[in-house]
TrEMBL record:
One of its GO terms (cellular component) is mitochondrion. It comes from Eptatretus burgeri. Residues 150-176 are annotated as: Disordered. Residues 110-144 form a coiled coil. Belongs to the OPA3 family. This is Outer mitochondrial membrane lipid metabolism regulator OPA3. Keywords: Coiled coil. One of its GO terms (biological process) is regulation of lipid metabolic process.
């Protein structure tokens, strides 16, 4: 149970570190020519166009042509999109790690339950075997008791007479 809060703290730390890194990426994207070439077209053509069309549609206006952003504004918007994408990517990675950890935990728990169930089934089958043996022994004792009961009916001696006759030695005949 100690690992759970520790992992949550690590994930929170990673997300907090990703924000300054995203800001650094954003500032680089504004100044670096390679990043400007990478950030400006999606911001200018795609994002700005969809944003304006959507806003105008909500206001009830019809727009045929959307003015492209100026290069500096497009670079700023593109760098913000890139930094938000980076934060989203880090958060998604953290969610994936947490998902994998939880699925491993649930898989381990499932295996433990299956093992416990298997052990209980083995114990049950063992106890059923003992029960069957006990039932056979009880049946044999009943048969012996029934045989003794029939023998008593055929030879009506009392149990005391039987005991006394068993304890007294039988007299031997002396040969003449």
């Amino acid at each position: 149970m100690v690992a759970f809060p520790l992992i949550k703290l690590i994930i929170l730390g990673i997300r907090q570190v990703s924000k300054p890194m995203a800001n650094r990426i954003s500032s680089r994207a504004r100044t670096n020519h390679f990043w400007r070439r990478f950030c400006i077209p999606p911001a200018q053509c795609d994002y700005h166009w969809v944003d304006i069309k959507f806003k105008m549609h909500l206001l009830g206006f019809s727009v045929r042509h959307v003015q492209p952003l100026q290069e500096d504004e497009a670079a700023e918007l593109g760098s913000r999109i890139l930094s938000e994408f980076f934060v989203f990517l880090v958060a998604g990675g953290c969610l994936y790690v947490e998902y994998v950890r939880q699925s491993e935990s649930s898989h381990k728990k499932l295996q433990e339950e299956q093992q416990r169930f298997s052990d209980l089934q083995d114990r049950l089958s063992h106890l059923q075997g003992i029960l069957e043996e006990s039932q056979k022994d009880i049946q044999q004792l009943r048969e012996v008791h029934i045989c003794e009961h029939h023998a008593q009916k055929a030879n009506p001696q009392t149990s005391e007479e039987r005991k006394s006759s068993q304890s007294q030695p039988t007299p031997h005949k002396i040969p003449a």
